[in-house]
Specification:
With about 300 residues, this protein is mostly helical. It has helices at about 1-25, 30-55, 65-80, 90-105, 110-150, 160-170, 170-185, 195-200, 205-215, 220, 225-250, 255-265, 270-280, 285-309. It is about 75% helix and about 0% strand.
Length: about 300
């Protein structure tokens, strides 16, 4: 337990640093959004291409883990859509869509940092496999839900095919695929480009985690505490439980099982707020869910990793 806490302490410590820097206004309000874009579109992809391109890829051994994670995500999403009580209450549809996203969308920044801190390059490679398996799926489900249950009906909303294409254009997913291609083909990282990518990637985790902290919104947590509590329980307790059961069913064990369950127990992705706001959903509620799951995960994630291991 102490080794897990020691590995995760810097991850959540950097989130706290980001929150403090934003609260103190040391860099101005306009600094954090460009910093997050830089991380998402450039630094994190560089990290993934560098580490996966030169790593020992798990290959087909990662397929059962990916299948378990996909199964757990689909079970959670379908259960929320089928049970009527989840679609009732304050603000109806928009509230439900925020709850749905809160239950299934993981924060890849925290996931990559935690996997790397705990298991090194092997953990990062498995986390990359988890990203490729889950991120397109949760983005697709989220957009479908926003199209189906939000009250806004403007023509800018994408169709289902466009939702899938947009998910596959995610720069983190593209970087995972490119890194795997370089590894599987034996090309590896070019002599000059490889060290450059490695240096750029070293800045990804600290800046990305601080950007997560800068995005925390505690005022939004108090607005709808009942729904936010539901989201916290579903994301940080039920979702890891479903993933653990799916791993058992698919015969996944060892580090693969731990990474899969850990990934399921991550706080909610900050990008959920942007998508929700742009597509007419309940932005303030989504911000509250992101904040509450991020703070609570600082306590629950080490416990989940210990139980999964």
């Amino acid at each position: 337990m102490s080794s897990t806490l020691s590995a995760l302490a810097p991850v959540f410590g950097l989130i706290v640093v980001g929150y403090v820097l934003k609260a103190r206004g040391l860099f101005g309000a306009d600094f954090w959004e460009p910093a997050e874009r830089l991380t998402f579109y450039f630094l994190f992809p560089a990290l993934l291409v560098s580490k996966i391109g030169g790593a020992e890829i798990a290959g087909l051994r990662a397929l059962p883990m990916a299948a378990a994670m996909i199964t757990a995500t689909l079970l959670m999403a379908v259960a929320l859509m089928v049970v009527p009580r989840f679609r009732q209450g304050d603000q109806g549809g928009p509230r439900f869509v925020a709850l749905l996203q809160g239950a299934i969308r993981p924060n890849t920044y925290v996931g990559l940092a935690a996997a790397y801190a705990l298991f090194g390059t092997a953990g990062l490679t498995l986390a990359a496999a988890a990203i490729v398996a889950v991120i397109p799926l949760v983005n697709f489900i989220s957009i479908i839900a926003l199209l189906r249950w939000t009250a806004a009906t403007h023509s800018a909303k994408p169709g289902w095919g466009a939702a899938l294409v947009a998910s596959l254009k995610n720069p983190i997913i593209i970087a995972c695929v490119l890194g795997a291609f370089l590894n599987f083909t034996g090309f590896g990282l070019p002599p000059v480009v490889g060290p450059i990518l490695d240096t750029l990637g070293s800045a990804a985790l600290p800046l990305g985690l601080m950007a997560v902290g800068a995005g925390l919104n505690f005022e939004a947590v108090h607005a709808r505490r009942s729904t936010i509590t539901q989201a916290v329980v579903l994301k940080l307790a039920v979702m890891p439980g479903l993933t653990y059961a799916a791993c058992w069913a698919y015969g996944v064990s060892g580090v693969s099982q731990t990474v899969a369950v850990m990934f399921a127990a991550l706080p909610v992705a900050a990008g959920s707020y942007v998508m929700t706001r742009q597509m007419g959903g309940d932005g303030p509620l989504m911000a509250g869910i992101i904040t509450a799951t991020t703070i609570t995960a600082g306590v629950t994630l080490p416990v989940v990793i210990l139980l999964a291991g």
